[in-house]
Design a protein that fits this description.
By secondary structure, the chain is α/β, with parallel strands linked by helices. The chain has one domain (3-129, 199-267): Rossmann fold, CATH 3.40.50.1820. It contains 11 helices and 8 strands. It has helices at 38-42, 46-49, 75-89, 102-112, 133-148, 150-161, 164-178, 186-195, 225-235, 251-254, 256-267; strands at residues 3-6, 9-16, 27-30, 55-59, 94-99, 117-123, 210-216, 240-245. An 8-stranded mixed beta sheet has the order 1-2-4-3-5-6-7-8, sandwiched between helices. α5 runs antiparallel to α8 (186-195). The radius of gyration is 17 Å and the shape is globular. It starts with a strand and ends with a helix.
């Protein structure tokens, strides 16, 4: 498990080499909110991409495996960690995919270091929290529940993370298994604090990479309108396409096959 120092952090990441490499760019998967980090988000997805390309999965500050000074997180600071991982692995330029909190972080990487990003995929992301009272209040509720009711925090995250149809399909037992997946650890709450302050509007015009924005029609965490707005903003200055999936926030769990296919079609297009 490689480690790279960035400011006051020792950033851990995993590298999964291709089983049948064909020279395709490496794929970097950037996780969303939660101290479990890359393992929870990408554990089931990584093997779907490693046939022909190397996959890198960083664990950013706030996760259990990356230690730092415990200060307040910034989008640019986490972007610097992703940049350091790409440089340390020596695999750039890469195809970069960010989910949820990882979407604004990945957009920042593409804006700050366009030489390192060939294609960019933003999944269930957003550009700005302030101005959307739903988003601001959801993250504020998570902060309150994290301090006062850890089980309630887990239930809220699970309930908003998946579509109603998916939750009913897995049933009560399946839902109860979701509740402890993202406990409100200090690291998770640092991520939630950052979620409340996201604003990458000034960075978006600097993105040069061809971009795919994936919105989730039933997203109750980050409403799909945010993905549509991201696409609209990026389309003003770069080549950006948009696709929408009929799923909740954690789309790569609900619609794994469709998700992998849409990402693969984009990154492997001529």
């Amino acid at each position: 498990m490689p480690v790279v120092p960035v400011a006051d952090a020792l950033v851990h990441y995993d590298r999964f080499d291709a089983t049948a490499p064909d020279g395709s760019p490496a794929l970097v998967l950037v996780h969303g909110t939660g101290s479990a980090g890359a393992a929870l988000n990408w554990g089931q997805t990584v093997p779907r991409f490693t046939g022909r390309r190397t996959v890198l999965t960083p664990d950013l500050s706030g996760t259990d495996r990356t230690r730092d000074g415990g200060g307040r997180l910034t989008t640019e600071g986490l972007a610097a960690q992703v940049i350091a991982v790409i440089e340390d692995a020596g695999t750039g330029p890469v195809d970069l995919l960010g989910f949820s909190m990882g979407a604004p972080v990945s957009a920042a990487v593409a804006a700050l270091r366009p030489d390192l990003v060939r294609r960019l995929v933003l999944v269930a992301g957003w550009a700005r929290t302030d101005g959307d009272e739903y988003l601001r209040n959801l993250f504020t509720l998570w902060q309150r529940l994290g301090d006062l009711d850890p089980e309630g925090f887990g239930r809220s995250v699970a309930m908003t993370g998946f579509s109603r149809g998916y939750l009913n399909a897995i049933g009560r037992e399946g839902f109860e298994q979701l509740v402890p997946n993202m406990p409100p650890t200090p690291g998770t709450l640092r991520h939630v604090d950052l979620d409340l302050r996201v604003d990458i509007r000034d960075l978006l015009p600097r993105v040069e990479a061809e971009t795919l924005v994936i919105g989730c029609a039933q997203d109750a965490t980050v409403p799909v309108e945010h993905s549509r707005a991201l696409h609209a903003a990026l389309s003003r200055t770069t080549t950006a396409s948009y696709t929408e999936m009929d799923a909740g926030h954690v789309v790569f769990f609900e619609k794994a096959d469709e998700f992998v296919q849409r990402v693969t079609d984009f990154v492997e297009a001529p």
